[in-house]
Amino acid sequence: MPQLSLLEHGETVYLDDASGRITYTPGLVEPATADVWFAQLRDSVEWKAERRVMYDREVDVPRLTGHYHLPSFEPTSTPPGAILEAAREVIARTGVPFTSVGLNLYRDDRDSVAPHNDHLYEIVEGYPIALLSLGGTRRMTIRAKEPPRRVIHVDLEAGSLLMMSYETQLHYTHGVPKTKQPVGPRISLAFRVKPERSRVSTGFYST
After folding, report:
1. What structural domains does the chain harbor?
2. pTM of the predicted model, to two decimals?
3. Is 49 or 206 the better-scoring residue by pLDDT?
């Protein structure tokens, strides 16, 4: 099975056992570059405002979303330049051949994503998920599904990379809750290795 590559500088290991591996590396991308990528993506991505059914009624998804296949997987796709640059950086640093990126734009403290795990049919077994953050810092809460319900809080800073192994999707949920503290807008780029059949499937949850 593919393994999570060790990053050289400032990596924190939050989890590394039979239930999976979670690591966090701040400053993977320099602040100036992170600022440029954030501005480019905020202005160039075709952000979608989605709705979904919850508790027998249709509600707004509390964030804007986007999705791109990377050219090596889908040659006809044309992601913004900032996505291609970010993908090259993440792939080079992790050694994982990511094929897809899901984006979320959290506009303010009211935007969020509910606790969830990735749909396993939408990622290739054994490959990790890499989450690159741009813009304002937001806290992610990672929670074990079974007792004892271990809880991990990670403040995702601009330019940081969070890595979650495939196994963590079996044993943990992750989400970005609303906050009472004013926060600036944040863009997340969730890199995945998707199977052939998932080319057209994006789903609601992309942290």
Report:
1. 12-198 (2.60.120.590)
2. 0.88
3. 49
